[in-house]
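T9SS C-terminal target domain-containing protein, Larkinella punicea. Tokens?
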Amino acid sequence: MKKIIYFFVLVVTFLPKSGFAQCTPPVPSCSGCVALTTGNQTLASGTYCITTAISNLTIPSGAVVCMSGGSLTNSNLNGGILIYNSGSLSNLNSNSGDIRVQGTLSNPSNTSFNNVRVIVENGGVLNMNSLDINSSLVVDGGTVNVTNLTRVNGSGSICMANMGQIHTQYFQNNSSNQTTAQSTKGCLSIAQPQDGQTFLNNPLTTSPDVLVCLPGTFTPSNLGSATVTTNCTGCANAMPVTYAYFRAQPLETGVRLEWQTTNELNHRFFIVERSYNALDFSPISGEVIDPFGTQNGRKEYRYTDLGALAETYYYRLKQVDADGTVAYSKILSVILGDQTTAVRVFPNPVANQLSVEFETAETGIIYIEVADLSGKQWLSQRGNKTGKSHSQTLQVQSLPKGFYLVTIRLGNQYFIRKVLK
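Tokens:
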């Protein structure tokens, strides 16, 4: 058995003119976060987690707050990092720092993003009635939906990567900082591009990796070098491939890579590439053409790297269009190592109840998934580890008989156990 730890690494292929050297800085780990149970305090440097109601909190530089449920109200972000997965957010004074959206955040009341960098990450969704960008908006594989007007002001800037999408009714660019995108592309969809509510006082971009989707034939001026698709009903129609996910599934031997697409435009095939240093990649697959399966118009692909041993590996997908154009997915890092005895899963074989016990110093949100050997997920459960010892119970009496892989994630740590039902 093996321990799997994986996280996302960003490939820097373009240095935007927006004032930061890469689209997305590395994601801080929430592993070992200290559970916050009271507000009315200014945090010290460190990592904290919120799963209950907290108010009157000040997050200074050096502090990371991971929000997975609960609520945060009447608080101040003063140079720190707020990682949002779920919960209620309101009355946040965003003075400086980063807000990283990893779940779905919709119209946080009395909260503005005037002076902070907002990063909408892979799988994250930011829904807003209107959005003023006075600092930095990074859309790295995530989606931003704006009901009315998106406006880039003053020193504001936008950087997109990994097929990130912005959908807005109207768009205004009053900033001299141009919108950028890395070679993994990003898309801006404008529902009403006509003059009036939509105008660009400055050129939008010098990068053809910025894709602009317009509903008709009218094209606003000052789009710069953007790749424009007219008669376009949404970003999915402008991008060669739209990924729903790209992830690793641990196996007893090797690593199975899984990805799902929601759109394929003039797409020919994928090639899976692997690296030992995240810089030099080599192909490990042939042309992956046929999906493993199709469900509701989404195509699912799989590839198993049987050569993965106890090493650190980096994977990416090379996507090739019909005209030979190449685009790359985000990079997935996988660390394989010996399993520890810190996690026990019993009884094995199991009949009705499966217990999971931890004896580790790390605290934070625990995610447990039970999947069969084909990768089909049967159960999922979340918990909050606040001390060294922790236990959870899963009801498995309804599972068919057979072998299952139990994946337990705590921060960036993955523990894998095989059980028999």
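DSSP finds no helices and 36 strands in the chain.
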